[in-house]
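Long-time lurker, finally posting.

We've been working with Peptidase P60 (Rugosimonospora africana) and I want a structural starting point before designing mutants. I don't trust myself to interpret raw outputs, so I'm hoping someone here can both generate the structure tokens and explain anything notable. Sequence follows.
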Amino acid sequence: MTISRRGVLLGAMGLPTSLALAATARPASAAQPAAGTDDHTTDDPATAYVDVSVATLWVSPGTDRPVDLPSTTNPADPAGWMAAMSLADRVWLVGELETQASYGQAVRILARSGDWVNVAVVGQPTPRNPLGYPGWMPAAQLTTGRGFAPLTGRPFATVIGDTAKLYHTPHRIEPFLELSFNTRLPVLSRTPDGVHVATPADGPKWLRREDVAVYDTVADIPRPTGGDLVATANRFVGVRYLWAGVSTYGFDCSGFTSTVYSAHGITIPRDAGPQHDAGVPVAREDLRAGDLIFFAHNNGMGSIHHVGMCAGDGDIIDAPTNTATVEGGVERVKLAEHRYIKEYAGAVRYL
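Top reply, 14 upvotes:
Generated this for you. Predicted structure of Peptidase P60:
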């Protein structure tokens, strides 16, 4: 057994020989088989692609509640899910979720249990699995992407707005799907006011030119300054806290920092502890904009439990967690006045 960043016990997972991915919309019922039942394994995990705007990964299959239905169907409704949950509902999710993945993101299939699959999210580094960040999600939210996979090496459009509408036609009258910030899709062609993109399972669609930036490769994304990172982070002040969240519908602390860095072409580990370990240590008196600041149990001497971003001027931007009485969310405050300041555990730099 291993321990996740959230203190949840995780068992060893097998790998599937095959996966029949659902082609129709259906919910993931709370009455699914327990992990390990109907499991299929293989030594060669297949690749699949997220087929909903934001997919939410769970610690175990079938633990979702009725209020979670908008997060487990295809199409998913992350905005509706967040709006429907009370503070108590969101607090309950602590320890139940792993991470999220965006539309078109690749995952590796690790195991199957009924209508759920255990996957590793490609592009979310973690010491827990070299393939990517692991968790369970409904099979109905994935597609094999046979026509999509060969296009993933093309130039891509990345959403630079808080959200962006994906449209059926170049006239952009009828929206097909709303995408979150930092969603990336292969580009097929461009017009002066539109970008023609491939989708995982629904053929070509269109985005407004002003909603995206287009790059040939991730390496072509301009190297940011610390100020660039802080400017991006500032945009999301007020976004609600969601345990495991990596989208503009809800962030957790390390999902927030990793997403901001990713949007600027820099991949860092998904979780706070590994983010701390992978960066270059920085003394508190040498902090500058864009550095990551960490907090740990036992007055800063124990395990890392929180991360935020230095915003300059003595400020920190972070996504503090929900409590039973306090709604968490992205905020900018003075570091010296931060709720966890007595647990300050150091800082690192990636630039």
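Before you design anything, note these points.
The chain is about 15% helix and 30% strand.
The longest helix spans residues 253-263.
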